[in-house]
Structures are given as C-alpha cells and as structure tokens.
Amino acid sequence: MTAEGSSPDEAVQPSLSRRGLFGLAAGVGAAGLALGAGAGSAAGVAIGRAGATEDAASVHPFFGTHQAGITTPMQDHLHFAAFDMMAGTGREDLRSLLQDWSYAAARMTQGLQVSATGAVGGSPEAPPDDTGEALGLPASGLTITIGLGPTLFETADGADRYGIFSLRPASLAKLPAFLGDDLIPESSNGDLCIQACADDPQVAVHAIRNLSRIAFGRARLRWSQLGFGKTSKTTAAQATPRNLFGFKDGTANILADDTVALADHVWVDAHDEHAWLAGGSYLVARKVAMLIETWDRVRLSEQQRIIGRDKSEGAPLSGGAEATAPDFRKKDAAGTPAIDHASHVRLAHPDLNGGVRILRRGYNYVDGNTGLGRLDAGLFFLSYQRSPEQFVTLQRALSTDLMNEYVRHIASGIWVIPPGAKNGSFVGAGLFS
Fold this sequence. Notes:
By secondary structure, the protein is of the alpha+beta class. The chain has a domain at 9-48 and 58-174 and 191-247. 21% of the residues lie in helices and 17% in strands. It has helices spanning 8-12, 16-19, 29-34, 37-43, 91-108, 150-153, 201-214, 259-265, 292-295, 300-307, 344-348, 388-397; strands spanning 77-85, 143-148, 192-198, 219-230, 281-290, 359-360, 363-369, 375-385, 407-417. Strands 1, 2, 3, 4, 5, 6, 7, 8 and 9 form a 9-stranded antiparallel sheet that branches. Strand 7 (363-369) and strand 8 form a beta hairpin. It is globular.
C-alpha cells in the first residue's frame, strides 16, 4: 500500500530536506534495491562481500506480507531500540521518517549501506551517510522490524499529534500493572520501536546506530537494549536454546511453518482491527532481571520443580522427552503432582489458559554488574501475538509462579507491528492512505 497520490518510487524516496546531510539516493525504489550488492558496489561500497554466495541464505527480504523478524529463523544477536517523536513534529515528519527508515532498512537487510554513497562514496567535506562499521560484513541474517506505540496515536494528555487517532487499533493501550512489576519508566514504552536481529552483533548495532541518525530532528532514542544468545526458536531445524538459568527455553513455541497457529495466535486478521493492520501483529517487550547468584545456590531438584522440566533434556517432570506434552495429572509415588501446581510450565501452558499461545522471540542480556557487584543480567522477553490480551492473560496467570522469587520485571512496552511493506512502499503506509 502506497501513500495516497504517490507512485511506489515516490513513496520510498527519502525526504532530503528533513534529513540534512543524510543523502539517501532518491529514485532507486524497489527496482534498485532488488539488484542487491551489485547495485551498491556500482554506486559506492557495498557492505556484503562480492561473490560471497555462502551468505545468500542469510539475507531476508525487507518487503513482504508480514514484517521480517517475527517468524524469521532466530538470529543470535539483538539490538532493540525505542524512540519518541520530537516536540513540534507533525504528520509529514512521521510519514517521512517511516519512509526513510524503510528505505534504509531495505538496503541494510541486503548487506548494503544506507545509501548509494554510503560511508566513503560521498563528499569528503561532509559527514558520510553511513557510519561504516559494517563495511565488509555480510548481511548476517539482519532483520529490521518497526513498531508503533500507543502514544504515537494519542498522547497522555489526549492529543492527536499526527492525525491518526481514528486509526488507532482498539487493542493498543499501555499494558496494565502486573504483580511484582518494578518498572524503570525511562527504560519502558516509546512512540516507536525498532527490533534489529542479526547473526553478527556489529551488524545489528550498525542498523540501530544508522536508523537513529536518520531519525535526527524527528525522533530521539528513548532507550535501547542489546541481547545475545536467543532464548527461543522459530523453526524446527533450530535446537531449543537455554536461558541464563540454564534451562531450555521456548520448547513449545509457535514455529514459522505452523500456518494455522500463526493465523490463530500471531497475525491480526482483517476482521480484528482496522484494515490497514491486517497481517500485522502486536509486540510486547519485557526486561526481566534474573537474580543469578541466588538461583545458582538453589539445589537442582528445586530448580527443576520451579520450572517443571528436567534441566538436562528439557523433558516435563511427568516423563518423556523434551517434546512430550506435560501430564499435569500424573503423581509420584508419594501422591504428589509430578509437576508442581505453581511451576512455570504448568501456569504458562495453553491448556490452563483457554488455549492462549504467543510467539516468543527473546534474548539473554548481561549489562555488566550491579552496584552490589552482582551480575546485571536476565531475559529480554519479546513476544508477538494477535491481541495484547493474550500476553495479559498469561502474565496474570504467572502471578503465583514459583520462579517469581528469582526474577524482577524492570522494563516494559507494547507496540503494534504493521504488516510488511509492499515493494516501493514503506512500513506504516496504511496510516496515510
């Protein structure tokens, strides 16, 4: 979907007057982007290595029915960032920002620089368009996913800054308070968000760094988070990873080839919300601090009781292998439930939550040490769902989770994820049609 009255090429053309020295080449459009590294090399310097055919499998298209970075095979690294629009900006500023971000993202996800002139191809007397730290690196499976927060549609004081309040999804609202929340306001929420995932951390950081530069004068970085070591899987070919508590995480996650589950639990249907959101989703981000040193002193049997699974293979304590469905009715020789009633596995299971499922896409994080000399570490939880109510239902069900003694929720946010952009258009174009 393109903006009203705009051709596809016009829709992706960056607004140079607002971007100052960031001279993304206008008129390239979808055709130019489709040329891949060859086009970038001819006009400047491509990030991808010429002829590196072994990297082709790690290139994910930016354009498509759904945004990449949701069902895409989980990459190893994350750089997540939330932004606030600047005071005094208007509808055209928002539109041009989403255009410029989409243009640059479509290039970077192919292993190209943000513009044709890039890091070294422009005037030596002007700052380069691209910061250059990814020169020579392949695309590394980079995906860039863009989200829109509740405050973009309506501010806390009820202002409709960008004339899009009438298109606000009914389900998009700040998450309610949950038992045990200890949120840091400065590290929560945001008008916009970008999730950059890649198999090379420098490629992910490069993406956020350059998209932040492009936003200059229109949006400012509110907070960001680096993540490593995926804590879920989105394809059957991926092994179930482990979180920092040492347990396999995301065993029963929705997978990319489960089209029925995706339609039921992840993708917004045309009948759910406004037509512009069909094919989109909702993203919830939660930063969950883990009390690592306390957990490390817990005996193995207790750790397994808290989780409800065997630490070695990930099998439910009711028996079987990792993929075996938990049997919550089974009891041990003493008549005690094999899986504790307050275990994480039982409280989060769809059978006890009206069939609710979500697509998890989280990462571990370590932010150094706390003031007490302990690891400042935990889980950066990301989940995609057809409706925010799915997450709210599960989070409330976990209020009595045995694991709550060892975790603290310190940051939170929710964003609506528009559907993927068509070739020549941009993410969020439906808001301006």
